Known about the structure:
Structural class: mainly alpha
Amino acid sequence: MLVAFLLPVTLIMHAYWRLHDAGSIHIQNAMFSKNLSMLGAALLIAYFGAGPISIDKWSETSINQRKGASDESE
């Protein structure tokens, strides 16, 4: 969802190539670059996953540990 949001916003809202004022061009270029970096990060996370320190991995490990503890007690 983040990729679907960032793609049009980056291209439409931060179109620095349409501007003529040097100050505005600089600001919009910075915002465009920021959005482009967030877009790349979102694509990387979507492809590779959040990793071992993610909340999903933590909750999965926690659930498995609780299941293991209850299996041992039975």
